[in-house]
Specification:
This protein has helices spanning about 25-30, 55-65, 65-80, 80-100, 115-135, 140-160, 165-175, and strands spanning about 35, 45. It is mainly alpha-helical. A hairpin with an 8-residue loop joins β1 and β2 (about 45). The longest helix is centred in the last third of the chain and has 18 residues, at about 115-135.
Length: about 180
Amino acid sequence: RATPTYFLNGLEAQPIPDGSYNTAAADGVLDHYFTLVYGQSAAFLGEDVDWNAPLSFELSNVLHRHHWVETLADAYWNTSDPKYLTGCLALMREWRQEVPPPDRANTTYSLGPYRGLEMGHRLPIWVNALYRFRNSPQLRDEDISFILSVIEESAHRMSQISAFANHGTKTYGGAAILG
């Protein structure tokens, strides 16, 4: 390739909703059904989402990678229905409240939601969600500040992690999108 590819350059126009986008997965997330393994049934995580549900180690990690944010951001992008934006922001805030980061002085993030691999998945998803929500009249300044603060926190934590092999690639790949 002779020139670099910029993925968030503002040239990708938001589609005009035509009713053809399948919102079933996004509607499921709004009802607290999360697809943790592609091709399998979504898991119901309670009327009030239990972000610390007793899942297997790997399924818990998948939940904290936030593919559900991607699902809701894509639904908003393709439908312009504000319920996907407001629902996504509410779940993001609930997750952050119930799964707070460990003390910044603790630089050992080898397990759980703040493991480098999970943050490496989550960071580009949150950046892309902000991009997809950016022109919404429902997106408030405090929403933008919240999302950016979590992105900044993740980038700081990722800069302190020593990762290797596939985990390192995903961890540092997530951080690389910030420049």
